[in-house]
Amino acid sequence: MAQLEKEHEDCKLFEPILNQQTNVKHVIIEKEAKKSYIRKTKVNAKAKALMEQMMNKDDVKDNKKDNQIINGIANEVIDVLPQKETINKHINEPVILQTNKKKHELIIYDLCNADGDQETRLAKQQEAYRLENQ
């Protein structure tokens, strides 16, 4: 019983604390409205298109300048060369050498792969070996 009285007294001590007004702040969390985003693909496509237009304009200008430079160089080269014959000689010599090399290679190939009896094949292979070593 003494214990009950003691608890009752303790409750009386807490009553003024419990009866006091408590300031409670209520916070309401709401979802924000979704932001409207501009699609990057559309922006990127527009940016790429503008870049391409600018680059094309620059390319056209550069091509014109390049053509003018090339034409100037070609005119200078033509003015410097005295005759067409010298040009033809320089051009024809490598072509003739290439055709001679091709013919030489064909002859060697034909000699190495010749048909016939063993003696004629040996003779042709020896001739091909001799031509290769020249």
Describe the overall structure:
The structure is a single chain. The protein has four helices and no strands. With 134 residues, the protein is mostly helical. Among the domains are: 39-80; 84-134. The chain is elongated. The protein starts with a helix and ends with a helix.
How is the secondary structure organized here?
Blueprint: H1 2-19, H2 40-80, H3 84-112, H4 118-132
Helix pairs in contact: 3-4
Q: Percent of residues in helical segments?
A: over 70%
Kindly report the average pLDDT value.
71
- Name the shape in a single word: elongated
Low-confidence stretches: none
Order of helices and strands: HHHH
**Biggest sheet descriptor:** none
Backbone structural class? mainly alpha
Number of helices: 4
- The whole-angstrom Rg is 51 Å
How many β strands by DSSP?
Answer: 0
Distance between the termini: 135 Å
Q: How much strand content do the residues show?
A: under 5%
Provide a short characterization of the protein structure:
The protein has 134 residues and is mostly helical. It has helices spanning 2-19, 40-80, 84-112, 118-132.
Key words describing this protein structure:
134 residues, mainly alpha
